[in-house]
Amino acid sequence: AVSEDKTKTSYRLNLARAYRYAGKGEKAEKELKAILAARSDHVEAGQLLAEVHAARKQWKQVVAVLEPLLKYRHDYTTYHLLAEAKHNLNDNQKARKYFEEAVKLNPKSAADHYSLGNIYLAGNFYALAAEAYRKALALGVDSPVLRYKLGSAYFNLRNYFGRVSVVTVKAGKADTISGDWYLIEPVPGRKDVFRAAPSGSAVYQIARAAADGFDIEYIHRDNRDGYKAGALANGLKTATGEYVAIFDADFLPEPDFLIRSMDYFTDPQVCAVQTRWEHINRDDSLLTRAQAIWLDGHFAIEHVARNRSGRFMAFNGTAGTWRKAAIDDAGGWQHDTLTEDMDLSYRAQLRGWKFVFLPEQTTPAELPSEMSAFKAQQFRWTKGGTQTAMKMLPRIMLSNAPLKAKVDAFLHLTCFSVHGYVVLLTLLLYPTMLIRYLSGTDPVTWRIALDMGVFTLATISASVFYVASQYELFRDWRTVLKYLPFL
Hints:
Layout: H1 9-21, H2 25-38, H3 43-55, H4 59-66, H5 76-88, H6 92-105, H7 110-122, H8 126-138, H9 144-159, E1 165-169, E2 179-183, E3 196-197, H10 202-211, H11 227-236, E4 243-246, H12 257-261, E5 270-279, H13 286-308, E6 320-323, H14 324-329, H15 340-350, E7 354-365, H16 371-397, H17 403-413, H18 418-439, H19 446-473
Parallel strand pairs: 5-7
Antiparallel strand pairs: 1-2, 2-3, 4-6, 5-6
Subcellular location: Endomembrane system
Keywords: Membrane, Transferase, Transmembrane, Transmembrane helix
Protein name: Glycosyltransferase 2-like domain-containing protein
């Protein structure tokens, strides 16, 4: 048939297959090369020719035949053969790439998962190696060697944090880098390739973590819909875990943050765990010292009292972890208020969820160091708190929550109205003094005594509140008392 019609490629392809199965590899190779000479995009001919070369362990020829065909078609057979060839040529970086594509196209290929696990293990990617071996095991590949390698991956995961090479770069031109830089292995499954970075940089830390199997994704939105609430809701779209830890950009969680806080979620009713804020710039200025004392009172007294007495408490928007099911059950992150954290907290607790506050576990953060930044922060908190009060108070009062929770929620959500009372008091102060003066009342009267009594009690009340918080948190609490007047 081929001799009568040499242009019919299907005849040549079938003839080449017959030659190959008959053990006549050279004749099969001749027919396949003739097909590719006429049609360079004939993928089936290329794959069959690569199989002929692979049988002879001619791995370079396999790569030379198949890599040009990737521009015509992407399929499992091509990637599998290329991965095997690159692996035998000790080009594990390319082999890893091709095996990863192969298992995407054929996720039930146990042999490819096993080979991919070997490459990950050789590259010290222990988490990825363990995952690949587990998949191979689930697909029916079971042997003492596989289980030994899986155990090795688990063992190394226990105390491995990535080993990298250090190079010292000397500055030459003005725009060159210098100092100690770390050469980093390309990150599997990522488009970005981190070649080198200083040890303290985020690039270096992310590369080491991602190379060890941690699924890290940086999400950039091209709009600001919903602001922080919108960003949190957008992040939930790709978050695959059952729990979501949230940190603002100026927070520095400790390495053991999750280890110390996650066990509280064994209670199925717990929706969130909040840690106490610590302040890394507490001693920078009088402004930061006053803010630190103020927030210490909120966390050490208010939060503890509310949480331990069964009243409603609010998530502080950061330095805590949420159960994703609770977020969904409460209606998700909503952006009709500026304090989406407080809004979600009350909605979740009205649905029966519980909070846990950990005063002994701290998460360091930076306080606003300038008055303009502090005022902007307080404006957001005040406006957001008022919006949340208008939105949630009717629901709370009509709910089946305990009376003590309703009373405290009312006082909590309306606390920002004190600013209005201060303005009203200021406006009424002069008329009150004028009326007293015109009435001819003796200045040293029971009225002045009453005024001073109320003033003294209010001063003592606020002072005891903040002194108690410092006493609770610090051994040297007396040293901060001198800053109370600035608060």
